[in-house]
Amino acid sequence: MTVSLIRVEGLCSLTAAHVAGTLALQGRTLVDKSWRSAAAWSSLPLALSGVLDDDDATRLAWVSLRGLSEDRIALLADGVAEAHADRVRAALAERIAARRRLGDHVVLITDLPGCFAEPLLDGLGADERWTNALEVRSGRATGALEQPLVSSRLAGNALRTWCEARGTRPEHCTAFAARSSDVALLASVGHPCAVRPDRALASHARRLGWPVEVRG
Amino acid sequence: MSVRSALAGRHLLITGATGFVGKVLLQRILAELPTTRVTVLVRPGPDDDARTRMGRLLACHPVFEGLDAAEGARVAVWEGSLDDVANPPDGALDVDLVVHLASRVDFEPTPADGFTDNLEGAVGIARLAAHTRGKRLVYVSTCYVAGLGSRVVPELPADLAFDPAEERERIRALAVAVDPRTGRTLLSKRAHELGFANGYTLTKAIAEHTVRTWPGLACTVVRPSIVEAAWDHPYRGFHEGFRTCAPLVGLALRGLFSIPAHPELVLDLVPVDQVARGLLLACASALSGDSGDVWQLASSASNPLTMDRLTELVELVGRTRGELAPSSRWLGVSAVGGRLHAPGRLAAALKTVAPVLGGWSRPATHLARDLERVQRAADLFAPFLLETDHRFVADRAARATAALPDDERDLFGFHVPDLDWRAWWTEAQIPGLQRHCFQAPPPLADRDPWPLHTHSRLKEVG
After folding, report:
1. B contacts of A75 (beta carbons < 8 Å)
2. Which residues contact A146 (CB under 8 A, 6 or more apart)?
3. ipTM of the shown complex
4. Rounded to an integer, what is the distance from CA B265 to the centroid of its chain?
């Protein structure tokens, strides 16, 4: 079996900060809205400037949902999916279809929690989706993500173990990603491809001879 | 236990078949139990006799959409009301089971209405059922015969702290002695004194006791809680229950952003199709020889929905459907004490000062009248939102569901413990209230009535 691993965030410019920031406006009061927005939107510059690593930035973004009910998050997630569905479809659908035509098992990978990712990625034709999960206690989000995070499934030997369970090897996998934080993923597979990469990833790709798609 | 086997070839007499639950129960029987025959006790309409009225309902009402008119061969009509059951016409006693759904679901009935419809009606039906071939009755009551309070309510006969016969006579006397308006107030007051939410639940409690202890009758009592929109059958969102959630949801969607209730209070709602399923399970059980049972069809013990969650769902669904402005305040519940009586107090004050207000006296009187209406609504709902927080156990329906054959479990099982409240509010309850309760109901299809039999011919065609 050959596998295509597609990192959603970079390919369609959708980040946890984007989604969480939209929902932060769901606070009851101005103070409530303010701290939620601050948590959600600060995660992006803190990650870009290197103050926080990607996992911590993702965690910070989702802290903004702390205390919101599961009902509110689920129903608002449908609204988020509606708002971003066209953009995500435009960025991913063609690539997914092309990889499936080649006979690949297509896996979409995203830092978004499943409640946001599922309605957004539903119907794109991927075989599998790796998503995070919001931790919920007594019907309300704690602001934390359930362990293990998606990122840990890409690290170390985890990908090799996953491949072996499916009768394949990372060398037979293709991965598409756009952010420097996904270097580990691209380096683990036999066929890495940087798609509209950020500056750091572009530099890595050039040095290591990985193919780069400037449009895609 | 198989519902299909227990009801195969059986003949049921159903009262209240044109009502909210009755229609869904009849639809289920006609759709899924092809050898079960039904006689319905139906009053004539303003322009039609009972047979035409029922035939038109079956042909034209969306609940029965998709059913073949040939199914009408299994339905016979007994034209009459609960007053007529003392003199059953020829053939009406040839039934295996009587299902008594008809009642006056008015939280504040006049003593005359409460007595005639809920008390005398039940007595008449019990007397009739005791003379039928099957001598079995499924009597539909309400969970709220448990009275006010906060406790776990088991599926047992209500423990009445008064003499039901004496109380029945008291209501009869009230019906004769005082005008309806005063009688309504006195009946409500008496109900509160005896620990009930209103006159409706008091009359149902007395009626339940009466039919359960009727000599020579195997009686099964079925107590639904608050019956709301359908989830699966006859179609998602079918609704005709205007009395409990509808006013609250309507006010919320019109801008009332605070509902007086305890946030952690559980409002016991149950979809109408689940009630129909529970009734069929109870009927099957009664026909299989079990009797004397009390069945509760409720959600509060197995799948509780708190007021806090309920109001948030109303707000969210209203917001996502564009009926609440994005900037509108969050709905919430607030625990109120003395404020609950503020409209009444203000109305009384306005009425006192109105005569000396000159040109303002008329608007002041109007305002006082409106405030009195608000107070009446608050008084009506207070027992359910502030004073009662029972957990109604619904084990019998759960056990009967588990005992169903695999191919019947999806069709006849009582699945309230697994109901997803978010999906139900989003896809059934709010759309159902809007389609059926907040606007004129959809017009009936223009078709010829099904040709139904009168009850006496059913034996011949069966």
Report:
1. 316-317, 320, 422, 426
2. A132, A133, A134, A135
3. 0.71
4. 21
